[in-house]
Amino acid sequence: MSPINPSDLSALHQLLVACGDYASQQSQESFQVFEKGIDDYVTTVDRLLDQKILAGMQTLFPKDGIITEENRATAEQFQHSNTQGGPGGDRPLWFVDPIDGTDDFIQGRDNYSVMVGRVVGGMPQAGWIYAPVGRQLVWGGPNWGLFEQTGCGHSVPLIPKEPPFEPDRGWAMVIGDKDARRFGPAIAQRFPNVKFLSLGSFGLKVLAVITGQAGIYIYLNGRVKLWDTTGPLALAEAAGLVCCDLTGQPIRFTEPDVAPHTLIHQQPIVVGWPSYVEALRSPLSEIAAAVGLPGEAL
């Protein structure tokens, strides 16, 4: 069952598609790029879309908290939710990433998306990912289902596809570039038949697992934030995937597992089909311990 009414759902879809299509158009034009931190960039397009989505969603959901990547003042709503009533409160919090995969957007590559996720009571309830290059909109959540729409077509159920886990015949893992450089050699040595798949957007990486392009996605880099994860992990749970850390604990969306001022996850993230997670989580934990997670003393 949809967590929001049909008219608001339709308006939200129109907003996300319009913003994504604008990003696609602007990718062919000149725009400015700024460095927010080490290897962390933002463009004038990110900032413009952030403002547009924030204003649109505040109109659609005036009683909810709307937290966006490029308006850091909105993050205070997360801190407030943890001090006033705690994470078990029923006020929805929305997390917005106007362009997920900004590096790909800057480089003129295809793997970026517009993402929105909804959290209630400290748990992801729903997510939306719009990939403008393919004009694909995916949405859904636990106890709701998964749906997709391409171009101007009708919405249809998105059927998850579980790839067979055949470690002796070859299998695919989604991993980001930074994690591939740090952990890839040790993983490949332990699992010589693994194939690494890398996509820019966190959301598109999760979709690659949902749709069977790979069986598992690992994120060990220690920089991912709530606007990156909320929507995709809501979709992953709706697909029947396991979302946990390297110890097998569920990914949490509240303090202390999320840093209150930065909204960075404190847990490494594993997203995968149960058979993959069961077979790979412990070996990956051993590899991470041997190599050392970012931020740990080596």
Short structural summary:
By secondary structure, the chain is of the alpha+beta class.
What does this protein look like?
This protein is an alpha+beta fold. It folds into two domains: 6-157, Fructose-1,6-Bisphosphatase, Chain A, domain 1, CATH 3.30.540.10; 171-291, D-Maltodextrin-Binding Protein, domain 2 (3-Layer(aba) Sandwich). It is built from eight helices and 14 strands. It has a seven-stranded mixed sheet with strand order 3-4-5-6-7-8-9, with helices on both faces. The chain has a five-stranded mixed sheet with strand order 11-10-12-14-13, sandwiched between helices. It has a two-stranded antiparallel ribbon with strand order 1-2. The chain is globular.
| Average of per-residue pLDDT values | 92
- Tell me the count of domains: 2
Helical coverage, percent range: 25-40%
- Full CATH superfamily name of the largest domain: Fructose-1,6-Bisphosphatase, subunit A, domain 1
Segments where pLDDT lies below 50 for 5+ residues?
Answer: 83-88
CA distance, first residue to last residue:
48 Å
Strand neighbour order, sheet with most strands: 3-4-5-6-7-8-9
Secondary-structure map:
Elements lengths: L5 H21 L6 E5 L2 E4 H17 L4 E4 L7 H8 L9 E8 L1 H5 L6 E8 L2 E9 L4 E6 L3 E6 L5 E2 L13 E5 L1 H14 L3 E4 L4 H9 L5 E4 L6 H14 L2 E3 L24 E4 L1 H18 L7
Parallel strand pairs: 3-4, 10-11, 10-12
Antiparallel strand pairs: 1-2, 4-5, 5-6, 6-7, 7-8, 8-9, 12-14, 13-14
Helix pairs in contact: 1-2, 5-8, 6-7
